Amino acid sequence: MLKKVFEKLCSKKIIIVGIGALLAVGLVSSILIAETKEEEEPIRILGTVAFSGAAGNIGPAYDRAIKLAVEEINAAGIEGFSGIEYKVIDTETKPSVLQRKLKREVGTWKPDVMGGCALETTISPVCVEAPKYKIPAFVGGHLSMSKYLPPGEVPVSKWVVYYGYADYFAGQLAGQFFEEMGAKKVGLITGDYDWGYSNGMGLKAYWEQNGHPFEISTVIYTPLDKTDYTTEMLIVKEEKPDAIFCPYTGAGWFSVAKQLRDAGAMPEFMLYGTTYSNMGGAKITGEYGAENIYTLADHDPTSDAWKDFVKRWKAKYGEKAYPEAYTNNYYQVIYWIKEVYEKAQTKDPDVIIDLMQKTSFQNVCISPMGPLDGFGNNTGAKAAIIKFVPGSSDLDPSFGLHPEMVKVYQTPKMTMQEILGELKGFKKLESAEKYPAAR
Fold first, then answer.
1. Hey, what CATH class is 167-300+380-423 in?
2. CA-CA distance, 16 to 79, in Å (whole number)?
3. Contact, 229 vs 191, CB < 8 A?
4. Where does 284-359 show beta strands of DSSP type E?
5. How many other C-beta atoms are found inside a 10 Å radius of the C-beta of residue 2?
6. Which of 45, 197, 255, 432 is the most exposed place for a label (fewest CB within 10 A)?
7. Going along 198-303, which residue ranges are E strands?
8. Nearest 10 degrees: CA dihedral of 291, 166, 429, 174?
9. Can you give the pLDDT at residue 150?
10. Structural contact between residues 402 and 389, judged by C-beta atoms closer than 8 angstroms
11. pLDDT score of 7
């Protein structure tokens, strides 16, 4: 009898000790997990976005794209990090303002990555400051080359990385497209700054390298703050080009197509540049302005990835909202940053920037972000041309146009140095000159 009582007491002790041990282990584990989470730091991304000034018409969409990606990534989690903290500053499209604000944020908030600039006027300070601060900087748009050429003061640096392809290639693709479509006379309407010059240089390079397949005339450079192009439309109407390439004109850019139609000056082929890129731009232009115009694009509007992106955008910003210019680039770049940091498992900027050169990631764009050429250039990117035609799409039944894929081009796999070597001494298209077709 005593033996059984003793055995029961022992059993109870063993159970109590066992439970106590499990509780202790659980408590220690909880403490360790809590300590680990406390040790995990956020990745701080500083948005350098224009909400005002000459790029104020396109900057807010970049901010929305970054916020959408950050929200999704934080909900899913990042291995080794507590999440992404995102803060945005208004560059005001002014280099001095951006430079001053960057200095303040680097000294106080201490970002790990920064980016979101539009126009070379504000990309330039980032190219200068990022190497000084050793902060990787991203530009979700395409690479403007002429700002690196003498007498340009912008350094070539691995610290600034670009999605997409050089604007020099965009001009060449425009030339190839116009020749394929049988255009005999081509015009250029673009902003009076680096991006416009480089796109025009690409068009001129294609013309020179392919035996002068068409005439280039009606070369117009517009001030970035201009919105009324009445004078320019009269010139186009007088010159009657078969095709117009319009990379970016500034504040009034989205209205160029409509102003051409209103003036009775719309050519057979009008090709907007990459900043227009998708139906978000067409919606701003309006059905009347956008119908049957073309744009260089960085996505396939019929792909499942694009459709999913549009649905996410609408869920976040409203059923009538639609992704605007470059938004898919900025969205994809943030996911690429996540990929890099998860691989690196450190915030050491030297490790991060070197890994960025080797890391590739793709979701919604036709080109992956990375690998890079060592100086920020996204080598071997693809370029698409889409056209806006009558008939609404399932993605946006309230709008009477939808995009159709026309063609996808593979851009040359050249490094930044090779592109600059090709451009050295190359002159931009001049408004006062005509570039005749071969006879």
1. alpha beta
2. 37
3. no
4. 294-297
5. 6
6. 432
7. 215-222, 243-246, 269-272, 294-297
8. -40
9. 64
10. yes
11. 54
Tokens, residue 127? 């190219």
Give the 3-state secondary structure of residue 73.
helix
pTM of the model: 0.85
- CA dist., res. 311 & res. 315, Å (int): 6
Rounded CA-CA distance 115/241 in Å is 38
Q: At what angle do helices 349-358 and 327-344 cross, to 10 degrees?
A: 120
**pLDDT number for residue 11:** 55
pLDDT tens string 349-396: 999 999 999 999 999 999 999 999 999 999 889 999 999 999 999 888
Contact 158, 371 (CB under 8 A): no
Q: Which secondary structure element, helix H or strand E, spans residue 403, and what is its range?
A: strand 401-410
CA 102 to chain CA mean position, Å: 20
| Residue recorded with tokens 């009606």 | 218
* Terminal CA-CA length for the chain: 120
Find where tokens 């600059």 sit. Answer: 420
User: CB count, 10 Å around CB of 6?
Assistant: 10
What CATH number labels 43-165+330-358?
3.40.50.2300
What residues of the chain score a pLDDT lower than 70? Answer: 1-38, 149-153
Kindly list the distances between the CA atom of residue 13 and the CA atoms of 19, 20, 21, 231, 367, in Å, as whole numbers in the listed order: 10, 10, 12, 96, 65
The pLDDT assigned to 8 comes to 52
Q: Quote the pLDDT of residue 112.
A: 98
pLDDT of 13: 52
Rounded CA separation 278/275 (Å):
9
Torsion of CA 65, 67, 73, 79, to 10 degrees: 110
Give the integer Cα–Cα distance in Å for 358 and 367.
15
Return the sign of the alpha-carbon dihedral for residues 417, 418, 420, 421.
positive
Write the DSSP string, 129-190.
HHHHHT--EEESSPBP-GGGSTT--PPP-TTEEESS-BHHHHHHHHHHHHHHTT-SEEEEEE
Domain boundaries, the chain: 43-165+330-358, 167-300+380-423
**CB atoms closer than 10 angstroms to residue 137:** 27
Cα 170 from chain centre: 14
Q: Who contacts 159 (Cβ-Cβ below 8 Å, separation ≥6)? A: 130, 131, 134, 135, 136, 137, 353, 376
